[in-house]
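Hi all, posting the design record for the shared folder.

TITLE: backbone redesign
STEP: 1 of 1
STRUCTURE INPUT:
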C-alpha cells in the first residue's frame, strides 16, 4: 500500500459522539439485511442512503417504503433518503412528499459511470425544473462527478465544468459533490456558497498504485496526459477498486490536508458499497469498497497523520462531523485536556450512545457474511490487516473521558 505521512504517537482513548455517514449503500434483500445492522457497529447512527437500487428509487413513496425496510433491520439509525435523478422524478412529488418521506435530496449519476447507473443522466438540460424545485425546497443535489468515457485519472476533473454550470445557474441550490478524489475537486468546491463534498475513508488511504499494477499506473498517467479516452484497467487489487478510482499521491495528500484543517465544507461519506466476493473478484470487478462495519476504526489513524499544534486550532472550532471530532479529540489529547472535549464540542450527551476508540490493535476480519446469514462472502476494506484502534459503542458517561 502507498506510504502515508508519518503520524503521531497514539494519544490514548478517543471518545466520540456517534457519527454521521453522509453517503452509504445499503442494498436490498438479504444483502440489505446483513449490512444494515453494521452501521452502528461502525460508529454511526445517521446515514444518507443512496438510491441506486434495482429498480432505482425515483419517488418519495418508494423512498419511504425502502426506509421502512431499513428500520426493520435497525430502528436506532436515522435513515435520510435520496431519489435517483431520472425523467421519472416528479417536482410535485418532491414538493408535497419529500419531508414526510424523509427525502433530503436527489442523486445525479452520469449514465453508466458506476454500479447500477444504467438509468443515469446523459443530458442535464432536461432536469432544470428538478434543480429549481430542490433549490426552492432547500433540498440537496448529490453529484457523482465523473465524465463517462474519460480516462480514469481525469474523469472527475473533466466533470467539473458541468458542476460549475449547475452551481452558477442555481446559486442557492445546496450541492454535495460526492466522494471527491482529486485536488482539482477540492479546489472547485472550496469557498463556494451552498457547496460541500464528501470524502471516503478509503480515498484518504489509497492511491492508484494500490489498485492497479505498476505498469498499468504508468500507462494511465500517460493516457491522462495525452487526453486519450479511457481503456479498461487491469485491476490487481479488486477489493480496493471503486468509482471514482483512487488517484495520485498528491491528490490523496490534498484530501488529507482539508481533513486536517477541519474545513466544514468537507465531511465523511463512506461510500461503503458491499458486493459479494465473486463479483469483486470477477473481471472486471464490481466497483465499491466495503467499509461500513469498521468505519471509524479505519478512519481514525488516517485523521491523526498531520495534526497541527494546538495553537493552530481555531478558537471555538467545534467538532461538526466525524472527521472533525476525531481531529479535535487527538488535538486535545496531545494538549493533555481530553476531558474537556465534551464541554468544548458540546456533542457528547450523558446517557446517549457514543463511540469509544481504544488504542488496542484489532485485526480486520477476512470476510463478513456467515454470521450475518449471507450465502456469499463480503470482503471488507483492509481484510486481514491490523488497525491501531478498536471501537465499541457504549452509553456516554463523564468517566470515559477520565480514563
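Okay, here is what came back for every position:
SEQUENCE:
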Amino acid at each position: 500500500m502507498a506510504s502515508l505521512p508519518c503520524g503521531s504517537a497514539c494519544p490514548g482513548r478517543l471518545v466520540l459522539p456517534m457519527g454521521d455517514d453522509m453517503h452509504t449503500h445499503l442494498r436490498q434483500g438479504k444483502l440489505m439485511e446483513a449490512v444494515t445492522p453494521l452501521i452502528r457497529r461502525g460508529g454511526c447512527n445517521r446515514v444518507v442512503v443512496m438510491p441506486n437500487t434495482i429498480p432505482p428509487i425515483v419517488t418519495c413513496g418508494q423512498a419511504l417504503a425502502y426506509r421502512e425496510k431499513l428500520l426493520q433491520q435497525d430502528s436506532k439509525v436515522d435513515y435520510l433518503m435520496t431519489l435517483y435523478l431520472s425523467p421519472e422524478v416528479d417536482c410535485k412529488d418532491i414538493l408535497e412528499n419529500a419531508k414526510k418521506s424523509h427525502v433530503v435530496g436527489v442523486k445525479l449519476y452520469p449514465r453508466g459511470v458506476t454500479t447500477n447507473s444504467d438509468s443515469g443522466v446523459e443530458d442535464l438540460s432536461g432536469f432544470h425544473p428538478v434543480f429549481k424545485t430542490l433549490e426552492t425546497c432547500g433540498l440537496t443535489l448529490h453529484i457523482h462527478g465523473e465524465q463517462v468515457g474519460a480516462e480514469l485519472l481525469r474523469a472527475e476533473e473533466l466533470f467539473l465544468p458541468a458542476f460549475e454550470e449547475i452551481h452558477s445557474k442555481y446559486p442557492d441550490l445546496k450541492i454535495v459533490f460526492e466522494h471527491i478524489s482529486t485536488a482539482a475537486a477540492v479546489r472547485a468546491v472550496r469557498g463556494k456558497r451552498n457547496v460541500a463534498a464528501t470524502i471516503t475513508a478509503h480515498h484518504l488511504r489509497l492511491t492508484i498504485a494500490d489498485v492497479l499494477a505498476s505498469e498499468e499506473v504508468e500507462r494511465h498517467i500517460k493516457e491522462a496526459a495525452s487526453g486519450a479516452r479511457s481503456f479498461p484497467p487491469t485491476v490487481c487489487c479488486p477489493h480496493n477498486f471503486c468509482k471514482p478510482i483512487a488517484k495520485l499521491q498528491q491528490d490523496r495528500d490534498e484530501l488529507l490536508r482539508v481533513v486536517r484543517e477541519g474545513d466544514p465544507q468537507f465531511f465523511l461519506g463512506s461510500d461503503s458499497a458491499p458486493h459479494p466476493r465473486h463479483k469483486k473478484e470477477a473481471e472486471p470487478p464490481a466497483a465499491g469498497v466495503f467499509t461500513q462495519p469498521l468505519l471509524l476504526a479505519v478512519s481514525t489513524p488516517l485523521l491523526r497523520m498531520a495534526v497541527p499544534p494546538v495553537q493552530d486550532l481555531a478558537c471555538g472550532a467545534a467538532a461538526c462531523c466525524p472527521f472533525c471530532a476525531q481531529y479535535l479529540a487527538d488535538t486535545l489529547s496531545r494538549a493533555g485536556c481530553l476531558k474537556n472535549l465534551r464541554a468544548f464540542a458540546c456533542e457528547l450527551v450523558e446517557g446517549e450512545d457514543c463511540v469509544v476508540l481504544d488504542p488496542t490493535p484489532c485485526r480486520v476480519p477476512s470476510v463478513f457474511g456467515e454470521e450475518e446469514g449471507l450465502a456469499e462472502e463480503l470482503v471488507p476494506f483492509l481484510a486481514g490487516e491490523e488497525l491501531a484502534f478498536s471501537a465499541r459503542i457504549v452509553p456516554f458517561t463523564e468517566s470515559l473521558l477520565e480514563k
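COMMENT: The longest helix spans residues 155-169.
Let me know if anyone wants the other runs.
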